[in-house]
């Protein structure tokens, strides 16, 4: 800069080094996506990674609505599902007509399917935000889900519409038969979609979406129509949800009514909220955790939905910012170098909290075995230790763990709060916390 | 010359309740016009009618000669009228910088653009930085607006209002709840920032009104009972009786 530098242009100056860090992060993410299947190469983990990738795109698309624009949708899966059906129909058309369209561009067709529906229904839906939008989204979700069972030629009824991803024209000798090739296809689209959605938050529209989220009334007085802003956000969300749906169709080689139902809509809400809607990376964490829990818990326990509910309620009550919010709370402490004051209290709290958790799990499993699935035998294994669900000692141990764990854990939680206050006030003094 | 704002025979009813009756008001280009009146006189309603937050039950409002009554607030804003709010009305979770930048975006022609990086718009950066400098909040640029002090939020409110470069600025009680020193600072700020623009202000603090305004209108029960220079208003017996008289005792 020249000698005409004023303090105003100082303020306008771009924070240096931000660009480098920004691109560095994406390069790291790309490398991680490439390397991941080389480290965990079993078929099971490839399937898991593929599902997680799809869930990441879906959750990020949902967060364009929830986190960025403040729209709580209960029917986001309609765009995911429409994307899936658009992809399946396209794949079948490509195969039967012999069009020269390779598989890797099919997710784009899914995106267009999701976008098309959003363009169609979005204008009416986004007229109002808040409860009205939430209710309409619930209604639309049910409407589309039920019509998927009625319009058999399009949605294939109960059985859905299946396809063969290997029948499409091959490129670079990739048949997309093996799961590893599908994984890389998904990984590519995860990276591209995540970058596009991140870029979207950094555009004039993205920032006005935030303004609409915070205060739609005021936005009208700075020249913007909040209805248009919500509509555009809705269309972008629909587009990326469609890409996720298209990838799911490729992965499973089928699209059916479950894709666009309330369960799917609920899952993406869970993932986004648990991960944390306030930060861009929150839904990514949420998608990883929720998918992993879905895959992992189902094989361990028959009442996995119960744990899921407990986690969700816990996050809503104690950490409304989600996992990302919990992590980012620590940033000012790290900057102020006061994190060391909090860590010991975390360590102290770990043991009693784990004891409490074990007690809760043991109680739930014991009760579940005892009352619901009596036929499966009376032995519950926890941390490798077998417990007999009919023995009074098991009930006693569970009770002691729950009550004792809670009493001790509560004391240690208070310690955390005190340590946190101390660390935060020092951070505030040093100017790292407002 | 066409008046900046012209209100002709405007009425506003909510059901059977008539809030504004036969409101007539003409504000010249470049004038600093204050609207005063007792609580519940309809000052804020008048603001809401002119800025499009409410539409009049009957009558007509013109901005620079064009009819604006019945238009949506953002349409009126795009024609060059910007207003602030009595209750602080900012984007609480966004930083001070982003608050002001959002208010600059439409006026600089970026509208709903989703193909541009908002950090790479030199004109936007320059204007945002200037506004922050003007409202003395440059040092607070990265603080979420919700965490500002009350006086700072009021200044940010003014900053958002003027950021779009509108030539008609309407401020609804900009100094409400401020200390004496803060009020003086705010008045100096308003005087400087609205230089060369038309200013309409609702204010309770009479020292602010008489210090700032070229002309004053007195609104009582949804009707303007007097309009004139500060001296004329001070001397007007109807005003004394209805409004100033009560304060003088």
Based on the model shown, name its key terms:
heterodimer; A: 434 residues; mainly alpha; two-stranded antiparallel ribbon; 18 helices; 73% helix; globular; disordered N terminus; B: 249 residues; alpha/beta; Rossmann fold; six-stranded mixed sheet; four-stranded antiparallel sheet; 9 helices; 37% helix
Characterization of this structure:
The complex is a heterodimer of chains A (434) and B (249). Chain A is an all-alpha fold. Helices cover 73% and strands 3% of the residues of chain A. Chain A contains 18 helices and four strands. Chain A has helices spanning 7-12, 18-39, 43-69, 77-97, 106-125, 130-150, 152-155, 179-201, 204-214, 216-219, 226-252, 262-275, 282-300, 304-318, 322-329, 331-335, 343-372, 392-429, and strands at residues 161-162, 254-255, 379-382, 385-388. In chain A, the strands form two sheets. A two-stranded antiparallel sheet of chain A has the order 1-2. A two-stranded antiparallel sheet of chain A has the order 3-4. The longest helix of chain A is centred in the C-terminal third of the chain and has 38 residues, at 392-429. Chain A is globular. The two termini of chain A are 31 Å apart. The model of chain A is unreliable at 1-12 (pLDDT under 50). Chain B has 249 residues and is an alpha/beta fold. Chain B has a domain at 1-80 and 200-249: 3-Layer(aba) Sandwich (Rossmann fold), CATH 3.40.50.300. Chain B is 37% helix and 24% strand. Chain B has helices spanning 43-51, 73-78, 96-105, 122-134, 150-163, 180-193, 206-212, 230-235, 237-248, and strands at 5-14, 17-27, 32-36, 58-63, 66-67, 81-83, 168-172, 198-202, 215-220, 223-228. In chain B, β7, α6 (180-193) and β8 form a beta-alpha-beta unit. In chain B, α3 (96-105) packs parallel to α5, α4 (122-134) packs across α5 (150-163) and α5 packs parallel to α6. The longest helix of chain B is centred in the middle third of the chain and has 14 residues, at 150-163. At the A-B interface, α1, α9, α10 and α11 of A face α2, α3, α4 and α5 of B.
């Amino acid at each position: 800069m020249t000698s005409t530098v004023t303090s105003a242009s100082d303020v306008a100056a771009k924070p240096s080094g931000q660009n480098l860090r920004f691109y560095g992060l994406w390069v790291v993410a790309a490398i991680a996506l490439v390397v991941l299947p080389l480290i965990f190469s079993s078929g099971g983990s490839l399937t898991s990674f593929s599902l997680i990738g799809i869930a990441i795109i879906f959750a990020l698309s949902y967060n364009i609505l929830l986190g960025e624009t403040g729209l709580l949708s209960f029917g986001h899966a309609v765009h995911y599902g429409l994307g899936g059906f658009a992809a399946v129909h396209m794949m079948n058309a490509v195969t039967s007509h012999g069009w020269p369209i390779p598989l890797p561009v099919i997710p784009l067709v899914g995106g267009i399917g999701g976008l098309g529906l959003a363009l169609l229904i979005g204008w009416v839906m986004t007229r109002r935000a808040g409860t009205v939008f939430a209710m309409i989204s619930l209604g639309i979700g049910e409407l589309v889900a039920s019509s998927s069972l009625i319009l058999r030629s399009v949605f294939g009824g109960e059985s859905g519409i299946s396809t063969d991803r290997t029948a499409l024209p091959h490129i670079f000798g990739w048949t997309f038969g093996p799961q590893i090739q599908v994984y890389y296809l998904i990984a590519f689209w995860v990276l591209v979609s995540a970058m596009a959605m991140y870029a979207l938050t950094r555009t004039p529209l993205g920032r006005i979406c935030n303004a609409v989220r915070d205060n739609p009334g005021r936005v009208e007085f700075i020249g913007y129509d909040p209805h248009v802003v919500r509509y555009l956000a809705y269309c972008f969300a629909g587009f990326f949800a469609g890409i996720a749906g298209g990838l799911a169709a490729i992965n499973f080689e089928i699209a059916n009514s479950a894709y666009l139902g309330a369960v799917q809509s609920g899952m993406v809400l869970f993932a986004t909220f648990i991960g944390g809607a306030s930060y861009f990376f929150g839904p990514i964490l949420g998608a990883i955790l929720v998918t992993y829990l879905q895959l992992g818990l189902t094989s361990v326990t028959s009442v996995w939905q119960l744990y899921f509910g407990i986690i969700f309620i816990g996050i809503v009550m104690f950490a409304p910012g989600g996992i990302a919010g919990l992590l980012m709370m620590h940033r000012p402490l790290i900057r102020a170098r006061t994190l060391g004051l909090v860590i010991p209290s975390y360590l102290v709290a770990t043991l009693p909290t784990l004891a409490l958790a074990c007690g809760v799990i043991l109680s739930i499993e014991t009760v579940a075995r005892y009352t619901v699935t009596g036929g499966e035998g009376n032995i519950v294994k926890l941390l490798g230790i077998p417990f007999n669900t009919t023995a009074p000692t098991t009930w006693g141990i569970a009770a002691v763990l729950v009550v004792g764990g809670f009493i001790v854990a509560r004391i240690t939680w208070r310690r955390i709060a005190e340590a946190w206050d101390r660390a935060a006030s020092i951070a505030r003094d040093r100017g790292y916390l407002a | 010359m066409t008046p900046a704002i012209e209100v002709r025979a405007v009425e506003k009813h909510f059901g059977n309740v008539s809030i504004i009756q036969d409101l007539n008001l003409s504000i010249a280009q470049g004038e600093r016009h204050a609207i005063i009146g007792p609580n519940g006189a309809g000052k804020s309603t008048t603001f809401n009618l002119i800025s499009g937050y409410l539409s009049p039950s009957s009558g007509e409002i013109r901005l620079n000669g064009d009819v604006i009554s019945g238009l949506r607030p953002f349409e009126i804003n795009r024609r060059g009228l910007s207003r602030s709010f009595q209750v602080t009305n900012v984007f609480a979770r966004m930083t001070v910088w982003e608050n002001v930048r959002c208010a600059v975006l439409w006026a600089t022609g970026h509208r709903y653009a989703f193909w541009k990086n908002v950090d790479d718009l030199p004109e936007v950066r320059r204007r945002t930085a200037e506004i922050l400098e003007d409202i003395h909040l440059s040092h607070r640029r990265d603080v979420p607006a919700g965490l500002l002090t009350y006086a700072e939020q009021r200044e940010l409110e003014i900053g958002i209002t003027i950021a779009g470069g509108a030539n008609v600025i309407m401020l609804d009680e900009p100094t409400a709840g401020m200390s004496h020193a803060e009020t003086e600072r705010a008045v100096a700020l308003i005087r400087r920032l609205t230089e060369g623009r038309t200013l309409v202000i609702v204010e309770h603090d009479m020292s602010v009104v008489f210090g700032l305004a070229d002309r004053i209108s007195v609104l009582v029960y949804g009707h303007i009972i007097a309009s004139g220079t500060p001296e004329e208003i001070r001397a007007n017996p109807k005003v004394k009786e209805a409004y100033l008289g009560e304060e003088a005792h």
